[in-house]
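Supplementary Note 2. Why include the ligand at all?

Several targets in our set were suspected to adopt different conformations when bound, so apo predictions alone were not considered sufficient. For every target with a known small-molecule partner we therefore ran a joint prediction. The input for NAI is given below.
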Amino acid sequence: MPKTSVAFFETTAKEKKYLKKKFDKNFELFFFPEQLNASNAGLISNVNIVSPFIYSAIDSTVLNKAKKLKFIATRSTGFNHIDVKKAHENGVSVANVPYYGENTVAEHTFALILALSRNIHKAYVRTLRNDFTLTGLQGFDLKGKTLGVIGAGSIGVHVIKIAKGFGMKVIVHDPRPNHILPELLDFQYVSLEELLKNADIITLHCPYNTHTHHLINMDNIELVKKGALFINTARSGIIESRALYYAIENDIFGGAGLDVFEGEELVNEENQMLTKNVSVEHLEALLRKNLLLRKENVILTPHMAFDSVEAVERILDITVENIKAFLDGKNYQKVI
Ligand code: NAI
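The joint prediction is reproduced in token form.
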């Protein structure tokens, strides 16, 4: 029986090692660190399955050269780097990885909350200078505080569960309430206004779209409970930048933990950071431009909430499952 040939693009040595263990002798595997695009499409002229990451450009030129291609399993949630319509016209099916890191992003959310609530970032810098004094480092307990979760979907629900472990009260704003969850997880749905007024910590976990664009803005920022912490691991456009700066400047926000921030266009898709090929200079330039960095009660992280060993392994595992399910005629994470 002929072997199924699979070509992985944009792979690291670690990913190659991990993936090789997942396939038996019926597969012929090819690993390329580079991206797949029109200039090197010859590499896949005899390949049955291609697995790219998001920097590959699988357009009609590539697809027309891939005469034996049957399946594309992108190792990402986004699939705008693939001409899906053309792929389907050519009889090529496409799969992606829609979920992989709900708990991962929730854990990073708490990394930011705890860093701010206990001044870990300030203590770290201070002790590097061999200064072990306590002045200005006093934190506050999470126990008994109110966490306001905006968007209780996959990630938001994990955040609520962790908050309950800390003994926090949780209020949630979500236009699509779930009727079982509040009793199960012990939280209350409230309006956005009530959430802003009552939460000691506000954390965003809704998608960014036309409805959530500037959900928090100059018109409602004054409602925020004075000194509340603001955490954003979702998307920067959900809060109007002017309102964010205003709230920090005027002590409306007592602190902010931002994994996503204005000007991070380079890194605006969570998967992109996996390749680590965004130049440090570029990232630093972006960050330098950001006035928020000068604030000692603001912590920025470079859109890394998704990036844990386990989440990346889940991406690879789901990709392998997609490939095997396709070959076995079973259900996979199909892109339509
Ligand atoms: P999800 O789709 O499971 O949940 C989103 C929730 O937001 C849903 O319950 C929905 O009803 C709610 N929602 C929609 N509109 C809303 C509104 N106007 N106000 C309040 N809630 C609203 O999405 P999931 O998987 O929990 O992800 C949430 C977001 O997290 C993603 O859209 C993405 O932007 C971000 N994300 C960030 C990552 C990072 O590395 N920083 C990694 C993965 C996701």
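Residues 101-102, 105, 150-156, 173-176, 205-208, 211-212, 215, 233-235, 259-260, 270, 303, 305-306 surround NAI (CB under 6 Å). Residues 39 and 286 are 31 Å apart (CA to CA). Comparable summaries for the other entries are listed in the accompanying table.
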